Amino acid sequence: MQYKTLLVKDLKAEFRTKDMIVSMGIYAFLVIVVFGVALSFARPGSEFLEVSGGLLWALVVFTSLLGLNRSFAKETENGCLEGLLLAPLDRGVIFLAKATSNLVFLAVVEVIAVPLYWLFFASFATPAETGWMIVIPLLLGSIGIAGIGTLLSTITASTRGKDVMLALLFVPVIFPLLYACVSATTCALVGGDVFADGFLTSLALGAGYDVVMILASWVLYDFVVN
């Protein structure tokens, strides 16, 4: 019940103003445009697809950083976070609700940005190579980014230069997950015998990382907010 109440609060507050989603969506579009211009003279082919998988995750990471920096803005500005900590709430519930709302907002932006990415960088690939097999790495990566990013954004919410601090903490911590997701996405885009190329191995690495790090974030959240 507490989890549902906190989650609904975050969702209603964001969908009423759409500040975070609009900012993330515009930023994602601009990143795609910059990538498109930078690679406008590249020749489409299998080598290009090997690069475009990494571009997709660069887009996701940069966009998620913008959203995570803003995820605790209202709580810190209006004293809402202190009120939540004074309430008789399990700190783990606060973490799960905030991580879920961050995941929802990131997913909404991805629904808009990923088709644009596909149009720019992977439209010459067959649908079988760019369909459901890209969705699975995106789901695993987004869950990990939302969970770990929520913990780190809580740590940096009240620090000076929080934008830079979050990036400095977030990118090294998320690197194993990022590597696994880029590998799986590249296997899906290039096609062929994706299982022999490491698709399943990359997914297993990403899933294991998600489980371990999200559990650790949930356990440590009480210590972090106190």
UniProtKB/TrEMBL annotation:
Localization (cell): Membrane
Keyword Transmembrane: yes
Topology in membrane: Multi-pass membrane protein
Protein name: Heme exporter protein CcmB
Protein family (similarity comment): Belongs to the CcmB/CycW/HelB family.
Principal location listed in the UniProt entry: membrane
The keyword 4Fe-4S is annotated on this UniProt entry: no
Lineage: Bacteria, Bacillati, Actinomycetota, Coriobacteriia, Eggerthellales
Alphabetically ordered keywords of this record: Cytochrome c-type biogenesis, Membrane, Transmembrane, Transmembrane helix, Transport
Matching InterPro entries: Cyt_c_biogenesis_CcmB
Organism: Adlercreutzia wanghongyangiae
Transmembrane segments annotated in the record for this chain: 21-42, 48-68, 103-125, 131-152, 164-192, 198-221
